[in-house]
């Protein structure tokens, strides 16, 4: 399997995150990348390619130019004020940052822009290859994640929405489905496509009553306008096991099959693993192989984009298990 990786990921290394007002060590660290790379090397049958760089203008397909420019300015402190509402004023430097993010988990460091741009490049390069029809499956190995990033707001360790950028590119060619398997609801992807006919967004995730992002991911969010009926949220209770995940994934795949997509984009996280420090679910490593087989059975050209997964011991094996399910059975 061809893997497009983000060579610049490590220049984004947040020193901390803020949880309920307390400074805590970061979960989203560069060694996550190395852990996945090591497992794929050990599993074999993965080849690694750097993406060609993209122009920043390519981000404007889904992200506002002023937001992109703000990230490009470099490091900024975690905000204390979040402007909102119709008279929102962001002329003061103290309020500017707060308008471009929605949580305190997502530091902007000196290297954030470069790392996030490299992830977008990897996703768009991979979309281009999938569009060309030469591959049936591709994997984007990147960090930081992307699925929480909105048009003009970072959050949930996400800055540019890599999977959404890829889906948007593929949507030029036909209907696209996005199947988000990260344990957290991909609020950014939902937000970007909420009114879009032609991009179906489906997500399995922890019930937002109890799991991040808390404000988005409920079952009654079904889309708007031409996009009505093209967003399906399947929230799962805390501590869900394969017994809960298996029927939810079957329902997700049934909805996707009904749409009949030309391409599938899978924002993938290993944070539903039983050993993950923040997911709260109960999936063993082998279940990720099960999920891979179920997704593969759809028979749709698929782009898998790395999102979360925060236990450095199980992250790599879980990604390898999921992806290896897409390998053709070898002849010997
Ligand atoms: C990003 B992705 C830990 C709080 C963590 C932020 C979670 C972001 C998840 N005490 N909150 O979807 O994996
Ligand atoms: Zn996650």
Describe this structure in words.
With 332 residues, the chain is an alpha/beta fold. It has helices at 31-43, 65-72, 93-99, 112-132, 162-170, 187-193, 242-259, 285-296, 315-324; strands at 2-5, 17-19, 22-24, 47-49, 137-141, 176-180, 199-206, 231-236, 263-268, 302-306. An 8-stranded parallel beta sheet has the order 4-1-5-10-9-6-7-8, sandwiched between helices. Strands 2-3 form a two-stranded antiparallel ribbon. Strand 2 and strand 3 (22-24) form a beta hairpin. The longest helix has 21 residues, at 112-132. It is globular. The site of {5-[(3-aminopropyl)amino]pentyl}boronic acid has 14 residues, from loops.
How is the secondary structure organized here?
Elements: E1 2-5, E2 17-19, E3 22-24, H1 31-43, E4 47-49, H2 65-72, H3 93-99, H4 112-132, E5 137-141, H5 162-170, E6 176-180, H6 187-193, E7 199-206, E8 231-236, H7 242-259, E9 263-268, H8 285-296, E10 302-306, H9 315-324
Parallel strand pairs: 1-4, 1-5, 5-10, 6-7, 6-9, 7-8, 9-10
Antiparallel strand pairs: 2-3
Helix pairs in contact: 1-9, 4-5, 7-8, 8-9
The chain binds {5-[(3-aminopropyl)amino]pentyl}boronic acid and zinc ion.
Zinc ion binds next to loops.
